Each structure stands twice: as C-alpha cells, then as structure tokens.
Model the fold of this input.
Amino acid sequence: MSKFLKSTCTLALLITSISLFSCSAKGGKNLTPVNIQAIEVEKDGYTYKMDPRLELLLIGLRLAENPDYYNNVYGDNEYVSSVDSFFEKHKEHAFVKSLKNLNKLKEHRYFAILGLADYISEDFTQINFPENKCPAYIKDVWKNTNFKKLISQMNDFALTSKYDRFLLVHDADIKKALYDAREFFTVNEDFLPYFQELFSTKEKALEINFCVTPLLAGHFSILPENKTLLYSPYYNYDTGNDIYFMNYYVETLSYIYIYDNWEKLSAPANTYIKKLYQQTQNPNKITDFVCQTTISNIISISTMLNYAEDFADEDQHDQLRNYIFNEDVYKPYMPFYNQLLEFFENRQNYQNYYDFFDQKMIEILETL
Done:
C-alpha cells in the first residue's frame, strides 16, 4: 500500500489537446526505412501493444541518463539490464546527445519527448505534426528543433544499433509484459469501466488502448493523438495497484483540462496555491506548473478515495482514507477535496468530469 500512497504527489502523466502548431519533416531521400512492427494482443475490446517508436525514445532517454527515466527501481529486470548492455557503445550517438540536451529542461518537459512518438512515422523516416493538432507542451519543447536532423539521427541510431535485433531477441520478454498488462486489467475488472465513465460523454466514449514497456517503471503518460495509456508491467497486478493506476491516470486527464484552460484558471489557481503555501509555510517558489500539478493531484486523490470506497475491500479503503486525512502533506487539501465531492454526490447532473470542471472549477478555487 505504501508504494502507491507515497507516489500520489508525483505527476506522472501528461497530455494536452491545445492545437497551436503544425510541422512535417522528412529525414531526407536516402533514409533507409526501419521496418519493425508493433507487437500487440487484444482482449475485451482493448489493445495492448509495444510501440517501437516509443520504445526507442525510452531507450534513448535511458542512455541520455534523463533523470526521469534513468533510475534503478526496476529490481532484477533482465530486459532493462539488457538495454544497458546492448546499447552501451551507442551512448555517444548524436540521437542520444540530442535527447541529453533536453535533460536541463525542468518540470514536465520530458513528457513532450514521449508525446513525440505519436508523430514519428512507423518506418522512422519522418516526423509529422498534423496541421493545427500539435499540443502546446510538445511545441514549447521542440520549437527550436531541426526535425529533419532529429529523425535522421533517430533513423541512424535504430539501424546502427541493430534495434530490430534487440527487439527480436527480447520478443518473449515483450510479449510477457503485454500479457501481464492484460492480466492486470482482467484481475481489476472494475478499473477501466469506472475510469472511462468519468471522462466519457453520452455522445463520445473515452477511447483507450495500452502501450506497454518495462522501461517506464514509475512513470505513466498518455500519447496525445491516439489516447494510448502507457503502462509499466513493473508493478504487475498486486493488490491495490488498481487504485494506484486510478490516481495516475486521473491526474493526467485532470491536467488536460487545467492546462488547456489555464488562461481562465490561472488567477484563481495562483491565489489558492499562495494561500495554501502560506498555511503550510512552504518556502518553495510558486510557478504555473506547481499550481497545475497540485490541483491535478488533489483531483486524483479525491477520485482515488471514491474508487476505493466503491471497489476496494473495507480495510484497504480505511487505510487509504486514514493515511490521506491524517498525513500532514494532505491535510491542507481537504477543503478542496470536500468541494470535489459534489461531483460524486450529484453525478447525474454532469456529463463527465470535464463538464463538472467547466461548471465548478473557478467557483471552487475562488471559494477556497
């Protein structure tokens, strides 16, 4: 239980649908296509896959020693160890150096690297940003990037490192990860229907596919174009992990709304967080990112408690509730949490969470 409880302050998910940027870049006439097919399995209408584009980005991040992805919480994981040994001699490759240049960026910037996967062609010869569809957080990070150069570097890295061979050698490990992910959501059968119900409307259901990789460890995200939840089999399907995942995924989708509507939420959100910091004597600097992630975290905690009340056993729910209500870091959040209960107590009055946010978020922030 403590593993996921201690993780609730971490924003590990990020997606936004701001449409501000369009770009298309081919790496050049002489790029050799990298023909690697995604490995996937299906069950109950959901697809679980390993996306070679995302996996190569994650390998590059690990070689670049990006602080958010170069860690050793994996335990005894043969796949991760093999990544380190197989690609060791390519750590100075231009593609890795390009990713390493991004390590100095702060806050949520590394998620933009993952978001880039959606715009890389399957044969690693182009980066295509659909007109008026590129999320702003990706644009902000990559706006000074030479995409033609970047895709050329990535293409060369895939070929010279024999990336296809690595994946072939680890075909069994990848498939096991896919089956583990599928098993997790089979065991925790209430998770996906509950999660989808929060963010779907009568007119449009929230579409979900899963991209599985052992390299994510404690980080989860959502690729912007195809609404793909990223999943790490590192956590397998131990008791309580359904609540843990609920926290991360709701935090991400809450962040969508806050990020997209920041212009109108900025003033009341900053005022609220300033009061919160004064109450807790928090000396840290208040930034937009701090405000956005703190509010997203409170929303996810509220949802996690509600989910536990409906689906967790009594001991598990009580332990979670007692921890959150008595832990010093969460106590100041309780007035906000109490306001959010309006959604669950009057669920029939709102299409989904976003409809509730539209009607109530500014009022809640100003009231607090």
